[in-house]
Amino acid sequence: MLPGTGYTPAMSTPVSRRGFLKAAAVGAAATSCSHVSPKLRPRAPVAISSRNGIHAVEIAVRKMNEGLPPVDAAVIGIEGVENDPNDTSVGYGGLPNEDGVVELDSCTMDGPSGLAGAVASLRNIKNPSQVALKVMRRTDHVLLVGEGALRFARAHGFAEENLLTERARRRWLRWKEGLSDQDDWIDLSENGSHGKEYVDGHVERPTGTIHVGCVNDKGDIGGCTSTSGLAFKIPGRVGDSPLIGCGNYVDNDYGVAGSTGRGEAVILSNGAARIVRYMAEGRSPTDACLDALRDIARMTKVPRLLDAQGRPNFQVNFYAINKAGQLGAAAMRPSQHSRMTENGPEVMDSAALFGG
To answer: Residues 288, 104, 78, 313: what is their CA dihedral angle, to the nearest 10 degrees?
Structure first.
């Protein structure tokens, strides 16, 4: 039996060395052809993204139609979201860490070359996905972090700027004021004021991110994920977004997958790589995403992370495309995703592992 295949070859007569090499060459040629078979190519470029990527997927497909590689198309699609101060989970305007400093993470992966680049805990640069692409193209490394990532970005001409917008600063202060009744931070309501800076109610800690996966009409694949990470995180915290195989993974023979949501759960399960492996085994993109979510649910054991029914009490979203251009998405609980196909840009419901 061939290891890992479940296949036992039939007995055959011995072959000469020349015959063996000839057979191997034919087999290699057949394998190579199978990777580029028209049956495995989408009729047109396609892209998938998180809910906040409706414009990103449209841009990515347009760029692929113009001849740009899928990974570059994904990065350009994400750029607009990174630049949007109203999206507080990505780039400029992202919610800061617990010290009020915005730290960004991103990774890119290119199917044809098999290379990847990533940055983590990057400060003062609003487009970490572009820096990650530079790491992939201009270094022999995969991941740069912190001060090293910033120096690298400076060397490549990226301009530094304050990424903390007034909106994000106010939300951070409101969170800080509500942390404890044992410190000296007092919110306006406790001092009898309801001025314009007062934010009513609990301040959420969003885990939003953006992932864009792309497949062009040749069947080549690329992906990118970018985030400002968990709001008000411990400085230096790194989630799944910049980790290859966790928040983003590409295998040019099989597909691309990415994630948003609770990064720690995706890291522990190597979520994106797991999904691509499931697609390689023949699962559809949606089924692969659902199976990866089931794995996370099975692996989540700590009571503080479980609801009353013993299910994970957090959200994880997965997105995937296989080499044939079939798209799929699933989430721990009801959610939506964006996609771009021949039908145009659409926001669609993702498959849900659990109810609300």
So the answer is: 40
Give me the pLDDT at residue 114, please: 98
Q: In this predicted model, what pLDDT tens digit does every residue of 41-99 receive, in sequence order?
A: 888 999 999 999 999 999 999 999 999 999 999 999 999 999 999 999 999 999 999 99
Does the pLDDT value for residue 124 go beyond 80? yes
Whether residue 123 contacts residue 150, with contact meaning beta carbons closer than 8 Å, is answered with yes
Q: In this predicted structure, what is the pLDDT of residue 194?
A: 55
CA–CA distance, 62 with 209 (Å, rounded to integer): 22
> In CATH terms, is domain 41-164+205-352 a member of 3.60.20.30?
yes
Question: CA 142 to CA 283: how far, in whole Å?
Answer: 29
Active site positions, annotated: 209
pLDDT 10s digits, 209-230: 999 999 999 999 999 999 999 9
Q: Do 158 and 132 meet the contact criterion of CB atoms below 8 Å apart?
A: no
Tell the residue number behind the tokens 């196909």, with chain if given.
341
φ/ψ region of 231 (left if φ > 0, alpha if ψ in -120 to 50, else beta) reads beta
First to last CA, the chain: 46
Predicted pLDDT of residue 184: 63
- Phi-psi domain of 6 (left: phi exceeds 0; alpha: psi -120 through 50; beta: other): left
CA dihedral 63, 69, 71, 77 (to 10 degrees): -10
Q: DSSP state, 343?
A: T
CA 201 – CA 183 distance, rounded (Å): 19
d(CA 77, CA 56): 4
Residue 312: Cβ within 10 Å count = 21
Return the pLDDT at 185. 67
User: Could you give the residue ranges of the DSSP H alpha helices within 109-236?
Assistant: 128-138, 146-155, 166-177
Look at residue 223 in the predicted model and tell me its pLDDT: 98
CA distance linking residue 171 with residue 31, whole number of Å: 55
% of the chain beyond a pLDDT of 70: 81
Contact 120, 132 (CB under 8 A): no
